[in-house]
Amino acid sequence: MRSLETEVLVIGGGATGAGIARDLAMRGFRTVVVERDDWASGTTGRYNGLLHSGSRYSVNHLDSARDCIRENRILRRIMPHCIEDTGGYVVATPVDDPAYGDRLMAACRAAGIPIEEVPVSRVLREEPLVNPGIQRALRVPDAPADSFLATLSTIESARQHGARTLNYHAVVELLTSAGRVIGAVCHDRVGNERVTIFADLVINAAGAWAGKVAALVGVHIPLLCSQGTMIATNYRLVNTVITRLRWPAPVDSVLCSHSVSVLGCTDVVINDPDDCAPQPSELRQILAECSQLVPAARSVRHLRAWCGVRPLYRSAPVNGSSGQGLSRAHVILDHAVTDGIEGIISVVGGKWTTHRLMAEQTADAACRKLNTQRPCRTHLEALPGAVGHHHRHGERLAHVETTATQSGLVCECELVERSSLEEAAVSGSVISLDDLRRRTRLGMGSCQGGFCGYRAAGLLHAINRPPSNDARRRVTEFLQGRWKGIAPIARDNQVRQMRLNELLYRQVLALLPGSPDIEKPLQPPATGK
Ligand SMILES: Cc1cc2nc3c(=O)[nH]c(=O)nc-3n(C[C@H](O)[C@H](O)[C@H](O)COP(=O)(O)OP(=O)(O)OC[C@H]3O[C@@H](n4cnc5c(N)ncnc54)[C@H](O)[C@@H]3O)c2cc1C
Description:
alpha+beta; D-Amino Acid Oxidase, Chain A, domain 2; nine-stranded mixed sheet; eight-stranded mixed sheet; 18 helices; 23% strand; globular; binds flavin-adenine dinucleotide
């Protein structure tokens, strides 16, 4: 059993926990951040992919809208490599009331969000797959953002500023003494050992799991978990962010994300964040709503569906099956004040767009708890990997065409080069093929790991030299993870792709003998087609 000692222990390695660890480390605190799985494997890695301008919130949550546009500008500055500067259009489809645009423009101006009316003809020229019947279009600074890259860059920054960053360390116990939390016991899932971490202050940034972490010391956090489901298409239907001009409601956007488009997302209350899966009714809802924006959304090849879980803080009881009425604003809870337990604070709710701000406010709260004043600097310093410009779609292709050979490509769909996989694999924090996926986009394209999975497994095996059974298990887990997302939405060519992948792995490579998940029959197409 290992033992560590630190000033602040941060639980959770999503956008919020990573941001808090970076902020604290930059303020000079000795900091440890632990994540039970891989960085960004929770909601952060399963979100819609939108850097909000705040326009969506301007009409009903003005403060949230103001936070969004302020953070939108800061994130563009400190992590330009994670953001594609496409801008977005808010459009009135034939069934929306175009007059709502006047209200939205007034609210955006009140929040300080740049918004301009643009001719419908211009939108249709730039975005030829958008519904030709749109009645009105407004331009706002929405943008697609890569939360995997952002979180990994944030963790790297925290590390460079002296934080200890431990993924695959799950908190299983909170240590208390005289009514105060004094640390935590983690299960190191790779070394399979218990690690005790003593800390002056524990910060619970476990997102939708914050309630479970707080429950370890008998504290109840009133959280409502809301599942949001999204669908990825096999190419970019749009090159910007297209959202509905209407009162905020679930399923109102189609946006580009690297080589694909994301359709989403729903809002369905669930009981347990560990028990979420895309439901057929959600998939039908997404296709119906998104095809109002982009008619081809229904007929295009759908790569996969996935869902993430929002933890919504409820200060009052909520009725109904959706969390739509609840604010997406974040809450910082000092459990000494709310529950009489010293030494622990929790941060819940919020948006990816405002994660840096949440981290700043949480670190300010930590300073107060530790009786010190140290200013935040996270808005001043760019993250590692930031280049002088925003991410540009096509950069990878240009790089491959000028520097790499065909044999250097391991994943053709996403143009992942052998060298970038090797670089990720030797970093020390990569355990599974899914970890490689989060770092490189391996297996995120049309074949969903069919052609690159076994190559990457071989590469990882050559570098890390795990027992061969482990290597087999990793390929199986990776493919099952991918297929879990394909099965609910598969039809036409994606069904053929699944079958081809299955034959490759089962018949040719004999890698998946008797795998029960793969032997399950395909589910019928969710669209009813
Ligand atoms: C469907 C959906 C779509 C969204 N779309 C957008 C969007 O487009 N734009 C936007 O700005 N925001 C969006 N959001 C909100 C945004 O994704 C979240 O606010 C943000 O990602 C939350 O980050 P987090 O770090 O708080 O939580 P998480 O990313 O969930 O991180 C919490 C981490 O804690 C870890 N953990 C849990 N228990 C333990 C334990 N015992 N020990 C150690 N670690 C533990 C988990 O594994 C997890 O990685 C969306 C949310 C959802 C659900």
